[in-house]
Design goal:
This protein is of the alpha/beta class. The chain has helices at 42-46, 62-70, 83-95, 108-114, 145-154, 168-177, 200-207, 225-234, 247-252; strands at 10-11, 14-15, 52-56, 75-80, 101-105, 121-127, 155-165, 182-187, 213-219. It has one domain (23-32, 39-252): Rossmann fold (3-Layer(aba) Sandwich). The protein has a 7-stranded mixed β-sheet with strand order 5-4-3-6-7-9-8. Strands 1-2 form a two-stranded antiparallel ribbon. Strand 1 and strand 2 (14-15) form a beta hairpin.
Length: 253
């Protein structure tokens, strides 16, 4: 008996993980409303106890969909402030029947500050945070000492933090502050699970010949909550001058 052909999506020629299932196997991955009076309880959200992976600023969900498809033993949540990209992400996840994945229109810092129980997350990923080119917008940059403190607080002891950018100025700042909260390692070379790019932005940047700066680290076990707070208060904010030559890439990606 001939097997039905797989329905595979591509973006810039690069396949999206998984396949589109028959409509009767689709699911709902939208997290439409956050708890009004308390944090997210992962076991209630996903109906089981499993390691939790967050993608903050997840865009159209390429990385998280790939992770949820290949790591069914983990639960995943992606957030972004742009409703249009979350709609794309949800549609693709729904069509792949990914019950271990949720998406929400929400800010990354807001999620960690208000709704994530301390020491409850296994991995936190941040790919290509917006650098904001104008001086009047610098305060909106995501990677700050306070944000890193929240990431450290949210991760389980030894939990994984992954970060990536194509902005040299942002990377210089990241190299200065991230190692103070995490045992940090710069990655040489592409991700083996996605050599053509984990995200839409990375695919576009690689095609344009831009350098990609990648790093990962585990939360320092000897850094307590109060010490991390004091450390965050003592460090400088990200006031670097962003490279405006790649602003057009931001619009495309």
């Amino acid at each position: 008996m001939q097997q039905p052909s797989r329905k595979v999506e591509r973006e810039f020629g690069v396949p999206f993980a998984g396949e589109i299932l028959p409509a009767d196997q689709w699911v709902q991955t939208a997290l439409k409303q956050m708890p009004a009076d308390g944090p997210l309880i992962w076991s209630e959200l996903f109906g089981r106890s499993a390691p939790v992976i967050l993608d903050l600023g997840c865009g159209n969900g390429r990385f998280l969909i790939g992770s949820a498809w290949s790591r069914r033993d983990c639960d995943h949540l992606g957030v972004d402030t742009l409703p249009v990209v979350i709609r794309y992400a949800r549609k693709r996840a729904n069509q792949r029947g990914l019950r271990n994945l949720r998406f929400a229109v929400l800010g990354a810092r807001e999620l960690l500050e208000r709704w994530v129980v301390p020491a409850s997350v296994a991995e936190i990923h941040v790919y290509h945070p917006q650098p904001y080119y104008e001086a009047s917008q610098m305060h909106r940059r995501l990677i700050t000492p306070e944000f890193l403190m929240l990431v450290h607080r949210s991760l389980q002891p030894g939990g994984l933090f992954v970060i990536q950018t194509d902005h040299p100025g942002y990377w210089k700042y990241i190299r200065q502050v991230v190692p103070l909260f995490f045992d940090f390692h710069e990655r040489i070379g592409r991700w083996p699970d996605a050599p053509k790019g984990r995200t839409r932005r990375e695919i576009v940047a690689l095609r344009r010949g831009l350098p990609i700066f990648r790093g990962h680290g585990t939360a320092k076990r000897d850094l307590g909550v109060e010490e991390a707070q004091r450390l965050a208060e003592s460090l400088p904010p990200p006031t670097f001058d962003a490279d405006r030559r790649i602003r057009d890439l931001d619009r495309l990606a």
